[in-house]
Design a protein that fits this description.
The protein is mainly alpha-helical and 275 residues long. It is built from twelve helices and no strands. It starts with a helix and ends in a 28-residue tail after the last helix.
């Protein structure tokens, strides 16, 4: 429905602004205390839809507006789920703010939970207003598919944003997948990129196998959700390939920092063992 689609669109604009100003490039990105205070305040505003706790907090008020619109659309269950997911998002950003140069093992949950990662798949059932109960979403196989869909978007973001980060090194905490792999394996950027793409395609193989297995046995509503995850994965990849945000150094126009990024016809054959 148009109403919930607009809510999702507005949230995506919110998360880019929050990520840029507070997490990556603004004063709070260099001061964990500022980030923790700001994020905790925003979360509390979101948790209290009846009253505006801090009307002057623009990020908190914008997020509160999103929750109130979900409630107005009769999406009480979705509004509660959204609030819980946002708490996880903020906690991950707090962790990242005090975790410079993370190990590969620490990077994985930081990246999955941070950057809004797990909040975006939420809209794959919130926008079409699918009536999924908690037990369906909590099924470990569905949870795995959701996490993989979220992680593809985040890994793609790291890969496509890497050239721009090289030219515009505002954030030096070393949270990009390419950097993390380079540190972990003491390898070149070129080798780290190959490892990152191999990781993504290995997980993509698991996703496709599990998706085919689950699609035949879930409810019609859950099938719609899984199809939504597929659309999210491909949509995010297409957006990264074409958006000026990562193609140009200034994110708008002029000097380019990213070339190529064409799609392959099929995944390369890779092993099926766990990463």
């Amino acid at each position: 429905p148009q109403q919930t689609l607009q809510i999702a669109t507005d949230y995506m604009m919110w998360t880019f602004a929050y990520d840029d100003e507070l997490c990556d490039e603004g004063p709070a990105s260099e001061n964990p205390s500022l980030l923790i205070e700001a994020s905790s305040r925003i979360q509390r505003i979101l948790e209290s839809p009846e009253v505006a706790i801090d009307p002057l907090d623009r990020y908190g008020m914008a997020l509160l507006d999103i929750r109130r619109r979900l409630l107005a659309a009769g999406q009480e269950k979705q509004a509660t789920r959204f609030t819980t997911l946002m708490r996880t998002y903020f906690m991950a950003e707090m962790w990242k703010s005090v975790s410079a140069q993370p190990s590969l093992s620490d990077y994985m949950p930081q990246r999955l939970m941070g950057g809004g990662g797990m909040t975006f798949p939420f809209f794959c059932h919130a926008v079409p207003q699918l009536d999924l109960d908690e037990s369906e979403l909590a099924d470990r196989r569905i949870a795995a598919l959701t996490e993989m869909a979220a992680m593809f978007a985040l890994w793609d973001n790291d890969i496509f944003s890497w050239p721009k980060e090289v030219f515009r090194p505002q954030n030096k905490k070393g949270h990009n997948l390419i950097e993390v792999i380079g540190r972990e394996y003491r390898c070149s950027v070129e080798d780290a990129l190959v490892i990152a793409v191999d990781m993504r395609e290995r997980v993509q193989g698991l996703y496709l196998r599990l998706y085919e297995h689950m699609f035949r046995q879930v409810s019609p509503q859950m099938r719609q959700y899984l199809l939504g995850l597929n659309a999210y994965i491909s949509g995010v990849l297409q957006w990264h390939r074409t958006t000026p945000r990562f193609r140009f150094i200034n994110g708008v126009e002029g000097a380019e920092c990213l070339l190529g990024g064409e799609l392959a016809c099929s995944p390369r054959p890779l092993g099926v063992e766990a990463l």
